[in-house]
């Protein structure tokens, strides 16, 4: 039987958020248990830029594979390939741009669910691109959200985001005209920009908030203030190895970071009081894209 | 338009030897001209072994891509992916085990054609596996071969090889019961085994012979005698960078090796007299598999 080949239309039609979240949850727990091998990404330099490969082997599911993307500045087709480890047969391939962000959304939803206060129901989004969208898409499947506001550097994008949320997720989202209005007074803040400089002020974040940062977070380029990283009581990432593997240090100290898989397994504390600020530093654990692709390929 | 997905049946049905040889020739010349970027292979370690990626960018054709295979001991499905560099769209995918050896066969055919004496027409094959097969498949498309003999460690395989050559290539091949009988008196010798120790004796090789070695060729494991490597007058490889990138030294000194692309371009001498022994040390230039896949994908 030839491997299944799926594209963005298939991902949109067939991959629902609970499926993605379940697959990613299983992969995060497997990573904690040591049954997901997820080595640091490898790169190979071509004339125009690098191809980047993130591979993983899910031992319990008998699967391995990788995702590949390029780092030159375009929206090129990514590819995820999944093999049955036992037989060596290629199970399937997923190409395009839809799978990766949905996987990241599922990781983020699990982080918010584990780290935000139980009653947290007001969400502020800074950024209205595909990463912000898939965070909301996945989060709506695991948490009841009462109120969502979104801001973007281009206001029309925030408005379009709100309209899409209403149409596709049946969620009322209010587009606001500043990051401050998106952040102040929220229980949950998700920052999903490409900005190399902070897009919010740390005073806007109240005690008890959970904040997720998707965009730049190195010492020289970061979308949230370094002061907020210092003020955070609990900092969690999906992969300490990947944080350690960055060429440049993060604004978060690696020594104080907990892994999301450990929190989900109950092996490490997450939030321990209502007043704490929790931060999730999303780096995209390798192998989670293979897990989501495998769930989609069936 | 979704990327084209082709498998082994498609490769067998659609990829003829002249097409493979033409694509590889173009890639070797591009590598010499500096328009094929072919970095050393990269590996990522999973629980059961490594995934190995060989990537290449063919600037003149506006293509880039990679091949991936694993190094654990099975016959698993390989995958070649080809992108249009300009648009970032995935043009197509080829999976299975057929493309890689045919690409290697095409490289070998170009090497024999460039290095063997013009009148060389007697071929001896040591080894009767897939690599030996594709060497013959490609060579028959570029050279008139009068007489072929083949030996294998398992004689039944040599007999099956001969039968297949008759059926598929309309070539008379004689199966012989020893490597000595496959090597002595030939103009062209192709050694394609997995043997870590020499399968032939250097005295069996007459002056004027061209010899290709496909299998192990490091100092600790080599299928041809180290003495033969010393005796060779001209040593050519498809990629000096890949030879240099091996963890262990080759039995051939890198400093004396010429690249096949340079010989094909007329920029470096190959054989300069009828009595010389020429050796082709095949390592599989990265990017040539992408070139053959691109030719197949159309």
Automatic annotation (TrEMBL), chains A, B:
For this protein, the record's InterPro entries field holds:
NAD(P)-bd_dom_sf, ODC_Mu_crystall, ODC_N
Q: Which domain of life is it from?
A: Bacteria
Question: Pfam families given for it?
Answer: OCD_Mu_crystall (PF02423)
The family database entries (Gene3D superfamilies) matched by this protein are listed as: NAD(P)-binding Rossmann-like Domain (3.40.50.720), ornithine cyclodeaminase, domain 1 (3.30.1780.10)
Give Gene Ontology CC terms. Answer: cytoplasm
* Name this protein carries in UniProt: Ornithine cyclodeaminase family protein
Q: Which organism is it from?
A: Actinacidiphila oryziradicis
